[in-house]
Amino acid sequence: MTENARTSKLDNARKKIVKFFKDIRNELKKVIWPTKDQLINNTITVLMVCLLVGAVIWISDEVLTKVVEWTLTK
Predict the structure, then answer these.
(1) CA distances from 40 to 30, 33, 61 (A)
(2) Cα–Cα dist 29/22, whole Å
(3) What is the pLDDT of residue 64?
(4) What does the alpha-carbon distance between residue 19 and residue 5 come to, in Å, rounded to a whole number?
(5) What is the separation of C-alpha 23 from the centre of its chain, rounded to a whole number of angstroms?
(6) pLDDT tens, position by position, 1-45
(7) For residue 55, how far is the Cα from the chain centroid?
(8) What's the pLDDT score for residue 4?
(9) How far apart are CA 34 and CA 1, in angstroms?
(10) Quick one: which of 23, 1, 56 has its CA closest to 10?
């Protein structure tokens, strides 16, 4: 490979990397960031839903365990 071809490939790679990070910066400027109150409300909502789903799974597991135990012992 000639020196020019290597330099050209390095330049192309460098340009692509720079463009990639510029694109990231431009996309981040378009983001509508939540306010502190929205963030708190959304966090509480997510935690409550996680607890609710966890409780449903736990109760279902307990009920199904009892059903299987009862079925196998009879």
Answers:
(1) 22, 13, 31
(2) 11
(3) 97
(4) 21
(5) 21
(6) 556 666 788 889 999 999 999 999 999 999 999 999 999 999 999
(7) 23
(8) 67
(9) 52
(10) 1
- pTM of this prediction? 0.59
Enter the tokens of residue 23.
Answer: 């694109």
pLDDT at 9: 83
- Three-state SS for the chain is CCHHHHHHHHHHHHHHHHHHHHHHHHHHHHCCCCCHHHHHHHHHHHHHHHHHHHHHHHHHHHHHHHHHHHHHHC
Which sign does the torsion angle of CA 42, 47, 48, 53 carry?
positive
Residue 66 in this model has a pLDDT that exceeds 80: yes
Residue with tokens 């409550």: 48
Q: How far apart are CA 46 and CA 52, in angstroms?
A: 10
